[in-house]
Amino acid sequence: MIREFHHISLRDRNSFGVDQQAARLVEFENPDDLRALFAHGVPPRWMVLSGGNNILFTQDYDGLLVTPVARQISLLSEQGDTVRVRAEAGVEWDDLVEWAVERGLWGLENLSLIPGRAGAAPVQNIGAYGAEAADTIRRVEMFCVENGSMLTLDAAHCAFGYRESVFKHTLRGRVIITAIELELSRTPRPRLAYGDVEREVEARGGASLRNIREAICAIRRAKLPDPAVLGNAGSFFKNPVVEASVAGKLLEQYPDMPHYPAPEGRVKLAAGWLIDRAGLKGHREGAVGVHERQALVLVNYGGATGGEVIAFARKVQQTVCDKFGIRIDTEVNLL
Length: 335
What we know:
Oligomer: single chain
Order of helices and strands: EEHEEEEEHHEEEEEHHEEHEEHEEEHE
CATH topology of the largest domain: Uridine Diphospho-n-acetylenolpyruvylglucosamine Reductase, domain 3
Radius of gyration: 20 Å
Number of domains: 3
Number of strands: 20
Helix content: 10-25%
CATH class of the largest domain: Alpha Beta
Strand content: 25-35%
Structural class: alpha+beta
Number of helices: 8
């Protein structure tokens, strides 16, 4: 069933808490709702607004926002230790992780407590603590706005990369994700090598699914602000990936610089470390600042506009570039 709103405030629909308005917002449950919505043509400006956790509105939105609200999780099949699961686009991502952990299904536990909904996970290819959504997503169900048909895209054709997918590029503005299918496992496959995960897990008694989930949640809560208390969109910047020669020169000057292998012989650097070393961790200007415990996160201390947030972000980017010669790109979608 469709629910439609006009001239609606988006303050409670984006995690930055920016008080912009949308000319029109529609909540949908199923493909039939979408067919009815687009039956008379596609509006000149529209986009999907899921949980609003990876977006910064810098002005009012004068088009149509489409929001998924269906939240069913179902077990599709089980063969050996492999389990196929389907989650509708409106499912809260962390609810899906908890659902899997409760049933002894491995694969999502390192992605605990990431805000947002299941339908947005493949778009950004969300990731944390050595895991990505692409590790488990096998198919994406989507509605084609151009002809009203339902399509299914296998993971091999989703062009998943570091915070990348085909949904951010060639399929952007053409499809609406309605559900995702995941492949999980009953065989324990702990991934503990990233950051403080192993230490936190061992402190809880070892590498069980529940212990890993609780460890990840504890780490995230200790480092990241709660959007319900302090407006933010999680990691505002991507970790930059540079040529090995560039990383080598920086390591000569900063031997303690975190660095990780990346595809094609390149090296991924830690944007948070770069921001911190540039002297910006905890730095604040007016109602906007870099979070005091996690330099990747920009926060709205209350009343900041989207324009003020992005102006502050540009200063952070320029400061890092001036010090290290490295450009850090935004992970958050800017409107």
